[in-house]
Amino acid sequence: MLQAIGLTSTPRRNAPPAVDDLTFEAPPGRVTALLGAPGAGKTAALRLMLELDSGRGVAYFRGRPLHRIAHPAREVGVLLGDVPGHPSRTVRGQLRMLCAAAGTPVTRADEMLEVVGLAGLGDQRLGTLSVGMDRRLGLASALLGDPHTLVLDDPAEGLSPRENSWLHGLLRAHAAQGGTVLYATADPKEAARTADHVVTLDAGRLVADQDVTDFARTRLRPRVAVRTPHAARLAAVVSREARAAQRSVEVVPEANGRVTVYGSTCAEIGDTAFRHGLPVHQLADEIGDTGPAAPPPAGPEAHRPAADLSELPPIRARPARGPLRPLRYELRRSLGVRTTTLIMAAVLLASAALSVLLARTGGTPLPRALAAWPEVLPLPPAALGAGILGALSFGDEFRYPALAAGRGTVPRRIGLLLAKLTVTAGFALLLAALAVVCGAQCLRLFYGPELITVPANAVALGASWAGLTVGCAWAGLLAAGVFRVTGAGIAAVLAVPVLVVPLVQKVFAAPSTRSVTGLPGRLRELAWWQLPQEADRWVLAVARMVAQPVGAALALSLSALVCAYLFTSLRGKVRW
């Protein structure tokens, strides 16, 4: 059962709240429609229930608020608007990525494609889906975790009658299995036709909470809408004449000079207004009323004071939770689009061409030729490509927040960050190795095998090369995560050689009177465990690498970005 108690949104600039003290229940085994005209507060109510907006009140899903549920995707399936996802990702790839986020087996994706009728469209790109197929994919995403409750915001918008019938058949089948279904709609006929229970809103307040039979009998009837500057006088005249003629006519005065009349016609109301000299600005037949304002309670309830909003528990907008399987999620996110492959292919082509050109003159050392790093470039193509991949790992996700439908940004949990660091480091190392291998093979092809020789310090050079590419990838990732813009990540990567390295070189330009030669021994004295003797040269190698201007610049940049990332996360009150 879904219970909403005292939901009240936070008003903006002296405006009335979009949702005002809303209380209702959506029972299990039934389809509940949240009905209201556009602007009545339906979407705001759903967002309050899902803790997407701040306010007061509480929503219980089988007795627990959403933030108390360990795995929300397995309890509540949500569809708010379109499915967020990269337009180039396939339907199957999107669902498999969300399976990793929800912690469900990957086979669940194909099962849901069968359920929603998209089994033959698994390789279709998200950017090519029609409105109907997008709604089907949204339902598949909501059902991935096999939830008990479905919360949908106007799921039938833009659908054809056939697709609409299929949609509500699926919702009714979910309810028939004991699940709870709540969907918002502005069409009273649709609510009467497809729901078992109708909750009607007007201006954010509860108008009626009815069984669908009572709703169809009391709200879904023909009416006459009249607008006049003398609304109260017209209402009194029509009521008096109806009593005199012993006719069953209901007159409901509304705001802004509007009167709604049930049980009469436009001709009769127009004749009455003409006989009494009342001007009429609007006179129209309508069908499908969402209901007048709720009448005041009678009896003892009329003397009970209104609820104090300060007594209701606050609803805090909470960030989306991270994926339950972050490493698997990040791999599927990165490999689900062709951007990663295209960037790596472009980097390898540029590296091979530069290697051949640099070795042609013979004035470039072999390590630089293999790395394709001429003096005029601030970074080699492999390091720049690794930085771009790192920036895209956060930048793309902010544009298409697959984990945070309706929440605006992806979660900044430590598990997701570690997964991103691991995956981008893997791509960077792969890119660095492939760039060197491609460069060596091109040099062997163009100039013969005698040019390729293994230098004596090959291990140290390889470690420096790996550190450069991984550092650039992490700098792009962290900068994009802090500023939520892909361009900021790429700018941070380029700032290391262009801005930070010159500053570091000024520091290292002063003559050194100290040496780190005894560093391993001093570390061994401080540590409670004994470092192996073979570790001495590795410690010295790392120290020398960091002492280089580029290494020091990367270390400083990464330290600053990590601090900025943690600061912005804590400032946003993210729950780790």
Brief overview, please?
The protein is an alpha/beta fold and 576 residues long.
Descriptive report:
The chain has 576 residues and is an alpha/beta fold. The protein is 49% helix and 13% strand. It has 19 helices and 14 strands. It has helices at residues 42-49, 91-102, 107-115, 131-143, 161-176, 188-194, 212-218, 231-244, 266-275, 326-335, 339-361, 366-371, 381-399, 414-447, 458-483, 486-508, 519-526, 535-547, 549-571, and strands at 2-9, 22-26, 31-35, 55-61, 76-80, 149-153, 180-185, 197-202, 205-211, 222-227, 250-253, 258-262, 282-287, 314-315. The strands form 3 sheets. A 6-stranded mixed β-sheet has the order 5-6-7-3-8-9, sandwiched between helices. Strands 2-1-4-14 form a 4-stranded antiparallel β-sheet, covered by helices on one side. A 4-stranded antiparallel β-sheet has the order 11-12-10-13, with helices on one face. β11 and β12 form a beta hairpin. α2 crosses α3, α15 (458-483) crosses α16 (486-508) and α16 (486-508) packs across α19 (549-571). The chain is elongated, with a radius of gyration of 33 Å. The model is unreliable at 290-307 (pLDDT under 50).
Main features:
alpha/beta, elongated
* Overall pLDDT: 83
Protein structure class: alpha/beta
Kindly report the oligomeric state of this protein. Answer: single chain
Uncertain stretches of 5 or more adjacent residues: 290-307
Q: What is the makeup of the main sheet?
A: 6 strands, mixed
Distance between the termini: 29 Å
Q: Layout of helices and strands, plus pairs?
A:
Layout (H helix, E strand, L loop, with lengths): L1 E8 L12 E5 L4 E5 L6 H8 L5 E7 L14 E5 L10 H12 L4 H9 L15 H13 L5 E5 L7 H16 L3 E6 L2 H7 L2 E6 L2 E7 H7 L3 E6 L3 H14 L5 E4 L4 E5 L3 H10 L6 E6 L26 E2 L10 H10 L3 H23 L4 H6 L9 H19 L14 H34 L10 H26 L2 H23 L10 H8 L8 H13 L1 H23 L5
Parallel strand pairs: 3-7, 3-8, 5-6, 6-7
Antiparallel strand pairs: 1-2, 1-4, 4-14, 8-9, 10-12, 10-13, 11-12
